[in-house]
Design a protein that fits this description.
single chain, five-stranded parallel beta sheet, alpha/beta, 7 helices, Rossmann fold
Amino acid sequence: MQTRNYILVGPMGAGKSTIGRLLAKELGLPFKDSDKEIEERTGASIPLIFDVEGETGFRDREQAVIEELSQQQGLVLATGGGAILRAENRQAMRNNAEVIYLHASVEHQLARTARDRNRPLLQTDHPAQVLANLLAIRDPLYREVATLIIETDTRPPRMVVQEIMQFLGCSKHK
């Protein structure tokens, strides 16, 4: 029997990595974070890759990692916030995965990312405006690929994982 993958999508600060680790533990599956995979493979931080190669270079690397990892079976994958921008990534996600969209408001994203210097797109004088603009563009794409949409704003990660597990339990019996 083929084991599905579980891919977490959503904006930066939605909790994809934290919730992904907890979900993987709950499911007894390995956890991968596409940004961490890129950093490990290149030996460079995401901000450095953005500086040297630009966003296009980073997105090329991201696409290769998502394509490779989505072809594996039985893992939980947290993606970067912009991973859904490329149609190839969206297709790879849909092919063999339950895609879970972790939605977070701009206010919560801002609170969760305020001191994080590892987010190149937020190194600006107006991070709230950047987050709002990104969400306006990306939200329809997250919704396009999502099997499940969960609000994460005021909810502890364990509660979100519990809701995902309930959904997965129900979907297996359909």
